[in-house]
Amino acid sequence: MTEALLIVICAWILDAILGDPESMPHPVRLIGRLIQTLESVLRTYVPNLKFAGVVLGITVPASVFLLTLGVTLLAFCIGPACGFVVSTILVYTCLSTKSLSREALRVLRFLREDDIKGARKQLARIVGRDTQHLDRQDVIRATVETVGENTVDGIIAPLFYACIGGAPLAMAYKAVNTLDSMVGYKNERYRDFGCFSARLDDCANYIPARLSPVLIALAVLVLMPGRLTAALRIGMRDCRNTPSPNAGFPEACFAGALGIQLGGPAVYGGVQTTKPHIGDAQRPSDNGAVKEAVVLMWGTSFFSLAVFGGCSMMIGSLIR
To answer: Which of 46, 99, 136, 188 gives 52 a disulfide partner, CB atoms 3.0 to 4.6 angstroms apart?
Structure first.
């Protein structure tokens, strides 16, 4: 086993145990501050907002990649153990299995207590839609949707890039993802300024999203084998039923595996939108769907590590 792969495995274990402690400094917060600072500067000095957005979209991931590369190289110069620890911690901060699980289960806890207001408030922490008027089934569907979509953004893609390029590439991906979450909106303020960042995020997630049906299917095969056919069928049928070119792949597989229907009407920033439905309503969207989605996410996370790690080892042996 190579040192690079061992770093990714240790990072995955750290994430599974610790998640994202809210009290711990997180590189994503620093990336967010960099984005805010550059946005202010570019809006002041670059009148063409589309060009300013391109500059932002290139500068932030490139800066994060180079800075991470410099930090890890310096750490390895200090000593192999130091380099290993620093690289492991940086990759660990890119993963979100435990934190996404924790947030979804908090929504479930409020639902079990019949506290719909608490569930809506908790859900608002992890989704972009307006939650204040959602009913119980809407809250459940939105929770499953975000667990499915973020299985790519927060788990599969970071592991994919970490196995290819270590901490520097994983952190660069996280920078792209953070850019999209901060400026990749279609409202008046960000339609021009954020369009490059949104497209860059689509490109970065293109391959991981299309690998997700295979990885989710492996998890379904082990955890809920009776649902494998449905997961694959719905995954192939409805993977294009989202405005995002990537989100539909994991969401459709989750919908098929759980036997519920996702999509439909949603409100974003006070504006009503209607997304195509994903999946078939073979069962009500009940509390069990949230728990099963979290279990499926954990299984997918494990198989992502196993598959990418195995491929990394095979490629490494062929190169040698």
So the answer is: 46
Per-residue pLDDT at 141: 95
Predicted structure pTM score? 0.95
**% helix / strand / coil in the chain, to the nearest 5?**
75, 5, 20
**What pLDDT shows up at residue 320?**
63
d(CA 203, CA 272): 27
The two beta strands, 271-278 and 262-268, are antiparallel
Beta bridge partners of 262: 278
DSSP secondary structure of 122-175: HHTTT-SS--TT--HHHHHHHHHHHHHHHHIIIIIHHHHHHHHHHHHHHHHHHH
CB-CB contact of 234 with 209 (8 Å): no
Token pair 């495995």 is at which residue?
9
- Give dist(CA 98, CA 147) in Å, integer: 11
Calpha distance 217→224 (Å, rounded)? 10
Strands (E) located in the chain: 262-268, 271-278
Q: Which DSSP letter does residue 156 get?
A: I
Q: Is the dihedral of CA 126, 128, 132, 138 positive or negative?
A: negative
The pLDDT assigned to 21 comes to: 76
Give the rounded distance of the alpha carbon of 40 from its chain centre: 27
Residues in the chain, pLDDT under 50: none
* Residue 107 one-letter amino acid: V
Model pLDDT, residue 1: 62
- H/E element, 294: helix 287-319
Q: Which of 65, 70, 8 is nearest to 31 (CA)?
A: 65
> Is residue 142 within 8 Å of residue 134, measured between CB atoms?
yes
pLDDT at 206: 98
Contacts of 196 (CB under 8 A, 6+ apart): 50, 53, 54, 56, 57
